Amino acid sequence: MLSNVEDLQLLYGIDLTGDQSADRYTATPANWNQVVSARVCVLVRSPNTGVVAGNQNFLNCAGALGTAAAGAEFTNAADTRLRRAFVATFNLRNRINNLP
Fold first, then answer.
1. How far apart are the first and last CA of the chain?
2. From CA 3, how far away is CA 19, in angstroms rounded?
3. Domain locations in the chain as residue ranges
4. Closest residue by Cα to residue 65 from 33, 39, 97, 95
5. What is the pLDDT of residues 28-65, one digit of tens each?
6. Residue 9: which of 89, 69, 80 has the closest Cα?
């Protein structure tokens, strides 16, 4: 697939009120019929070492998605590769059935 991807995490947006908007995000929805969106985090790293001068303290996917425990949002890597977490939220258009 893609090289240098270290982490991939998905959260599903749950509509609890029926307004076709996600009220909360979870990794394991109890009712898949309530899922209206998906939030994706991809953590990528540079292919080469020596890109940063020393240890890099970077925001991990759990921190970027807001699911990390307090104090665990960042990770320290000593291999001198550059890392970055990218987050995007996607509306699942086939789950929206009524006009607002």
1. 38
2. 39
3. 5-92
4. 39
5. 999 999 999 999 999 999 998 888 888 889 999 999 99
6. 89
Q: What is the pLDDT of residues 56-65, one digit of tens each?
A: 899 999 999 9
- The two three-digit tokens of residue 74, written as one number: 């960042």
Q: What angle do CA 45, 64, 47 make, to 5 degrees?
A: 0
User: Which residue type does 19 have?
Assistant: D
Q: What gap in Å lies between CA 56 and CA 29, rounded to an integer?
A: 34
Report yes or no: 98 and 20 within 8 Å, Cβ to Cβ.
Answer: yes
| Closest to 2 measured CA to CA, from 52, 62, 48, 43 | 43
Say which residue the tokens 């982490």 belong to.
Answer: 7
